[in-house]
Design goal:
2 copies of one chain form a homodimer. By secondary structure, chain A is of the alpha+beta class. Helix content of chain A is 39%, strand content 12%. Chain A folds into 2 domains: 160 residues, Creatine Amidinohydrolase, Chain A, domain 1; 291 residues, Creatinase/methionine aminopeptidase superfamily (Creatine Amidinohydrolase).
């Protein structure tokens, strides 16, 4: 964790922003897999982590704004806990590490809140089933009342704080990106026809773990790159295909990297693979160059879409005016998702707080249309934002068949040319950036991205 | 999955055993980490898997015994699902793969059950919070009524089926054990002072993944071997210590291996490490040799405990009659847990169905005493049982201090000698066995276990 003053300062600013009442930040509990005591790897709630640094299950944090008091609730280890899990710090020691002056046992929380009935309690939206149980029990609310009672002022205060990354946070993220770079370089250097996707993915995970943390999200490593969130399988890597590898490491403190490269299984791209790759690369570079404070990320997304359409027109797959095609969502036959997302303690940062609050604003609402509904970030960029830029082109047979049979956007799409691309797959190129006072900076060391540099690693 | 006849036969036997009513087997849903759509790796419910072979989220299986009808409930993929997750089989295709003749959409289940109000519904104990939500909604029960309404006849029928592993299951388990062997051999061959525990653990996980599945449980790889369930950390491996490595792979079908070795960081054990190792090894081998049909595993556990006490007496740490010491739980200062557990689709097989039903019997109740309360298996062994044998000696400073200050079991323990062992750590040796008609068979190829063979790998 960072120095405790970091957390003291964050909580102080949070109190000022929220103004009054009591803030209840719930730490996560263990999640059971196939029986109660067989747990998934513990994942702390990211807001709890941001304001306490405490990466341990079964803790609750009260920030009483009205009385300027922070209290950590948790249970000390029993001798049974010590036998099975080793010596753990006491709750009072944990509190002290986070600069929290008071601590109490977990079962005192319910009584504490009952005594504070006149103060409004601010809490965040639940995203695990046990969050409903906890909040229902503590605040005597039905699950529906929990949903309705979520504190928008708390959400907005946390979003405004967590959106702007400090130098220390950026340096942690950069560490994660550089480990993620090692994973990408390993995939590009060592993947060979005849291996399974899983075999390569396992090697990449071992690099993430050796980096001191683990994966920042389940690895996407596939020769079926057209499927946006497919995960690695035991399919054998075959000549003639490309491998799309979207992966990242997170540091022990849970700051992540998130990178994508697409490379040929053979030593070089085929002509058609190279043509499509160059289109995606051009869109990715154009978008990266357009990043600057004050720019709407929505516009950067639309710019990337236009660049993709320009390229698809040269390839003969699209036609007509590029801007018009994008305005009609014609490009979403090939680019069905968003250009990027905020990145921080969550790989899609703060997604649990609501994409409207994180990625949009009071005046900019998230679209519900196919394509734009998957753009998680649209708002005006500010220095300290960390985000991904990850355009792609995806040839999805079921979607092409559906649109063709509907003659959808037929004035922009040359449906007779699509047949050649039925088994093409997909290409994505992704890097991570921090917005600076006058532009943006690539996070981590640059690694192979051009056709020439990628092919050099395949030699 | 196995051939569909396997699942048809299993369901047929289950119907005969339960006798009447409707069986509701709930497949698991995705589990969220730090926001709703960031999922842990999907883990199917093992009983659902056992009776259907379907390793996909959001399915429910109805087995109507009275009308001899099986129905799979689930939803077909939408075009959005296909864009993000690729083409998936329809629910009707999934049903057919499992030899289930009928399929319906998921939202039809609630109405289906309302029409069957005269038939009792058999369901299993919940172990994830969403199980309570599902069962409450479907059967109009409060969470307390869900707990009270669990079907003991269904539990007993499933335990009797799943306890006896078929040849095909044993062969899958053996495949997993052999991959687990590769993990153990890698740790023993490559671990070096100066590495972090995590670095080695990552390499072992990559072997599990390359084997076609993944880890069967989070790796325990530590120089703090006295802590029973501690996981790897970023601690640096130091000379003079031992590494305790408890890990296993599972196959793509979720059949697992579970092995432990303890080895010196240096090229050879110190004299005292070797002495303690030999005690554990002798207990492990004696227990393994005692495995046979009809034998109570409780007695095998007690035999191993006596062997440990015999050794600790030679070492000067214990005194008095070994049987008496064990009867007084004096050995639990050094061996706080059970000798082993059933192993199958769950690493602690069927633990979610209740340890009393799985590991004990109507006439043999599980003890609540320290030590024996952690023995998950006590009952009489039968051919086809697969289980672990994993005695150990663990020197836990906090526990030694507590007992010493209480003078607990002072007639069996030489408290004045404990000081030398304060920082010793712990040693465990674990193998997996199947009970045969006249004894037991080690699963997987034998790998280094004696001091000499382990040291040979450290050269």
């Amino acid at each position: 964790m960072f120095n405790k003053n970091t957390y003291i300062t964050r909580r102080k600013i949070l109190k000022q922003k929220v103004g009054s009442g009591i803030i209840l930040l719930a730490g996560n509990v263990q999640s059971s897999m196939n029986y109660k005591d067989n747990w998934y790897a513990f994942r702390q709630d990211s807001s709890f982590l941001y304001f306490s640094g405490l990466d341990i299950p079964d803790l609750m944090l009260i920030i009483d704004i009205d009385n300027d008091v922070d209290i950590l609730f948790g249970n000390d280890a029993t001798i049974d806990d010590i036998v099975w899990q080793g010596v753990l710090p006491t709750v009072s020691e944990l509190a002290s590490n986070a600069g929290i002056l008071q601590s109490k046992s977990l079962n005192a929380l319910s009584g504490y809140l009952k005594n504070k009935k006149n103060q409004p309690v601010h809490f965040l939206p639940p995203y695990r089933p046990e969050h409903y149980d906890q909040l229902s029990d503590l605040l005597q609310l039905s699950p529906r009342e929990v949903d309705a009672g979520v504190s928008v002022s708390l959400i907005k205060a946390i979003v405004s704080l967590r959106s702007i990354k400090s130098e220390a946070e950026i340096s942690e993220i950069e560490k994660a990106v550089n480990t993620s770079n090692q994973m990408q370089l390993a995939a590009m250097s060592f993947a060979r026809a005849g291996q399974t996707e899983a075999e390569i993915a396992g090697q990449l995970q071992s690099i993430a773990i050796a980096g001191g943390g683990n994966l920042s999200f389940p690895i996407i490593l596939t020769t079926r790159g057209e499927t946006l969130h497919i995960h690695y399988t035991n399919n054998i890597i075959e000549r003639g295909k490309m491998v799309l590898c979207d992966c990242g490491a997170e540091t022990a403190m849970h700051y992540p990297g998130d990178l994508t490269r697409t490379f040929p299984v053979d030593k070089s791209f085929t002509q058609i693979q190279r043509d499509v790759y160059e289109i995606v690369l051009n869109a990715q570079q154009s978008a990266a160059e357009a990043l600057e404070p004050g720019e709407l990320f929505l516009n950067v997304h639309l710019l990337a879409c236009e660049k993709l359409v320009d390229g698809l027109k040269e390839l003969g797959l699209m036609k007509g005016d590029s801007k018009e095609a994008v305005a009609n969502n014609a490009h979403t036959l090939f680019f069905q998702c968003g250009l990027g997302h905020m990145m921080g303690l969550d790989i899609h940062d703060m997604e649990n707080l609501g994409e409207q609050y994180v990625g949009y604003s009071d005046t900019l609402k998230k679209s519900k249309e196919f394509g734009l509904k998957s753009l998680r970030l649209g708002r005006s960029l500010e220095p300290g934002f960390v985000l991904t830029v990850e355009p792609g082109l995806y040839f999805i047979p079921a979607l092409m068949d559906l649109w063709k049979s509907d003659k959808r956007n037929a004035s922009f799409i040359n449906y007779d040319k699509l047949g050649h691309f039925r088994n093409f797959g997909g290409i994505r190129i992704e890097e991570d950036f921090v917005i600076t006072v006058n532009g943006a900076r690539l996070l981590g060391d640059p690694i192979a991205k051009t056709v020439k540099d990628v092919e050099a690693l395949r030699m």
